[in-house]
Structure formats: C-alpha cells, structure tokens
Amino acid sequence: MKATFISADAAARLVKNGDTVCTVGMTLISAAESILKAIEARFLAENTPRDLTLVHAAGQSDRQRGNQHFAHPGLVTRIIGSHWGLAPRWMAMINNDEVEAWCLPQGQMVHLYSAMAAGLPGRLSQVGLGTFVDPRIEGGRMNRRTREQPNRVEHHTFRGEEFLFYPAIPLDVVIVRGTHADEDGNLTTDEEAMKLEVLPAVLAAKRYGATVLAQVKYRVARGSLHPKSVTVPGTLIDAIVVCDEPETDHRQTSGWAFDPSLCGDIRLPVSESAPLPLSLRKLIGRIACRYLTPGCVINLGTGIPNDVIGAVIHEEGIGDAVTITVESGIYGGLQAGGTDFGIGRNLTAMISHQDQMLYYNGAGVDITFMGAGEMDPNGHVNATRLGASCPGAGGFIDITQNARHVVFCSSFTAKGLEIACENGELRIVQEGEVCKFVNAVDQISYNGELARQKGQTMHYVTERAVFELRPEGPVLVEIAPGIDLERDVLAQMAFRPLIASDLTVMDSALFEEAPCGLAAALARHASSDQQGNDK
C-alpha cells in the first residue's frame, strides 16, 4: 500500500474545528514542529481550526516550541495534559482562565492510550488517590474555569479497595514523529532520543477512526527498513510530512539538532569532566544522595534531581553501584538536564515511556528523587501549583505514590535565597522571601497521610534541614553545621515541626568542595548487609 506524503500545510488542513488532537513527545523530543507550526499558522491566518481539545501525556515544549504553537485562545478551548513547566504560554493561559485545563498523571495518560486502543471504557488505577487529581478534592482541575465543568475523573470502590477511573478520551487526530518512512509508510524512530508512547497513541487513534499524521526526517525506498526497526506499520498512518528544515523543525532535542550518542548509535569515551561547583542545588543533591543503597534502582525527577544527582553520583565514583532511571524510559548513562530532561548519553537501556510507567506504577523504584515546592504539617507536598506557576504533575504522582522511598529535594526558602559553604559549615547569606513550610499546601501533589498509612519511607531534604515522615508526621531529624535551629529553621516555617530527640548535625564533608565520601559510605553499607546475610 503506497503511503500518502503531503505538505505540512496540507496536514494542517486535515484538522477540523472542534477536533480532539493528541500529540506525542516529551520536552522538545519528537515534537512534529513542521505540522504544529502549520496548524498555528493556519489558525492565525484563517481563524481555523478552532475550539480544539489538546491531549498530551508529557510536557511538550522547551519554553518556545513544541505544543506551545497551540497556545492561542480560540485555537484550543480544552487542554488535558500532565505538565506545562516548560510551556510559559500555556501556564499563562491556564492562570488567566483562557482555557479549560485538566491535569492528569503522566503515566495514567500513556496507559489510557493502551486501554483506549483495546476498546476499553477507560483505566482503573489507584494512582492519584488523595491528591488533587482525586474528584473528592479537585479532580485534576487547574483553574476556576475548569471548576465549572463536571468531573472527568471518577472515584470507585472495587473489590473492597478504592480506585480512580480515568475515562477514555475519543480522539480525532493523532500527531507523531519518526525518523524514516518508506514508500509504504512504515515508520521508524531510530534517531529519536526517546521511544515514547508512539504506537499506543496511534492504536488508540485507530480505535476511534482518527486521522494519524506523522512527521519524518527521511523518505526511503520500499523494503529498505528492517522490520524490527519499524515502530508503526504504514497501514496505521494516514499521511506523512517530510520535514523540509530538520535543523529547526526536526531537532533531536532542544539543545542538539542531532547527536548519535543520544539515540544510542555511538558511545562516547568516558572523560573526567569537571565536577559541579558546590552550589545550593548541588548541596541539596549531595545531602539527598546519602540515602542511596548498594544495588538500588532510582528515579530522577525534573529539576534538582535530574540536574545534579546524576553528576554527584558520577563525581563520587558510585555509578556502578546504583541504577539510574528517568521516566522517559532511559537507564544509566549521563543524563542531560533543563530543557533536555529525559535524555542521556552512553545509556545501558532505553525502553518505551509506557513500559517505564508500568514499572513505576507496579513494582515501583527503590528510591525516587523529586523536586518539591511546599510541605505542610500533615506531610502533604505540593509540586504542581505554586502561585502563578502551574507546572502540573508530569510523572510525579505515578512515581512518588509507588516508590519504596521518596526523597524530596528543595531549597528551604525560595526567591532570593543565597548561601555560602565555608570551613565545613553552611552560612545563610540572604534568606529567601518565600516560605515553603506552610500550614496548608496550595495543592496536594503527594498525600503524606496516605504515605504514613502504608508505611512509605519519605525524607524532605533541604540545604539546611532534613525532615523524615514518621507515623506522627514530618519530624526534623538533621540540621546543617553552622545553622542556628531557631533563627535559620524554625523561624522560617509557618508551623512548628516535631523535632527528633536525637536531632543530629550533618557531616561537615558535605559542605566542602572535595568529594564527600559517598563511595566509602556505600561500601560500609554493603559490608554491613553482607555481615547480616552471613549470620
């Protein structure tokens, strides 16, 4: 069957007023820029298509491109997604009530595509219970305009247990991206930096008779693709756009037009890169890394965890002792950060976004390191709506709810905080203006009460203090050397926390530029475990 190759403008004309459009990508990885830009250009020139519902599992922007092309009042009237932290125009539209906005857990959305593809009415899951996604709290609504709408998520009891039901979302158009398309339309994703959920989204489209549009970098001859390399069979794709300007519109990531090491085609020599300077973020990452155990599988969330913890692990020489994973599906290697979250070089494995979320939701990782914005006396944590910023959940809820140990990484205060590490001690040069330990979080992204009920281990790590979630609530268990408990900790909190009777002072080595001894600590841990097994 001969494939239909069309222009980006022709692809844009296949999107009709009122359509529900699903796009696949993460950050700028796999963003079909040629098609997205053409849809935006048609709307701005002709005021059509209008009133779209945009559905997307992961955040899909680098602050400028990606699904921000759809961020125009009138073009989209409803957005159902998980994350907008790198999409400032979307956050502004949500805050200004210019769009109906629903935030659902990223993993539940990619799994919902599979349920939809299978002809099921939706997905039943315990992920989201007790958080803002729960219809008994906010139901995933992100602004006033959305609060006027009926529930999109349902609460049910099944076989004596509580669940949330995520109903199917009928699709009209699905937009994906690949590397090659042959003359039969068979699509590979060989040069993509992530595998993502391309096939499940396409199969969901077929269930509803939706139009599948694909953007590719290369058009190749029939029979030239190895069948095992084909991500989507051509019979499932309706039209293909070959990108005219891959340097700008088919970039492998925001930071790189193409780097073969990011898709695993080559491995780069391991070099002795300069260690990160001892900044606020690195200090928080160092303190958090003390919870690593030999052989543990860890997850790195966006922000401080992904940007510094991997670097600390490699600097301390313990990369072979732990397995690093990221929600995009990557294992091991050296992770990129910032707008290129979710990719890495010299990976040991890369699985699909959907399969990675199955692992996180089912078995759960040993330790997840996550960013955080607020914590209250119940141990509730907010990372999804902070004042005028509404980044959303991404994979936060899926991963933190099921991990064995959750380590939140956060500065103690925000907006203007400056520190100095001197002679093995911490000094607060300038206090932040924003209090992050509040009487009630603005939005429940992590439910401390439910975590205590199931006995989950949780630590909330900052540069000057560490809290541990215990049956009685968050307990202050450590402070940094050089910190005054009353002035620098308690006076900067809206509530007075429980304080451990054996409150300790952190090791001064954490506050020195030299490696802080994580390798030796892991070796001692391994030796202790072995002695315990020998008894």
From TrEMBL:
Keywords: Transferase. GO terms for molecular function: transferase activity. The keyword Magnesium does not apply. It comes from the Bacteria. It catalyses: an acyl-CoA + acetate = a carboxylate + acetyl-CoA. Its EC number is 2.8.3.8. CoA transferase having broad substrate specificity for short-chain acyl-CoA thioesters with the activity decreasing when the length of the carboxylic acid chain exceeds four carbons. Belongs to the 3-oxoacid CoA-transferase family. This is Acetate CoA-transferase YdiF. It comes from Franconibacter daqui.
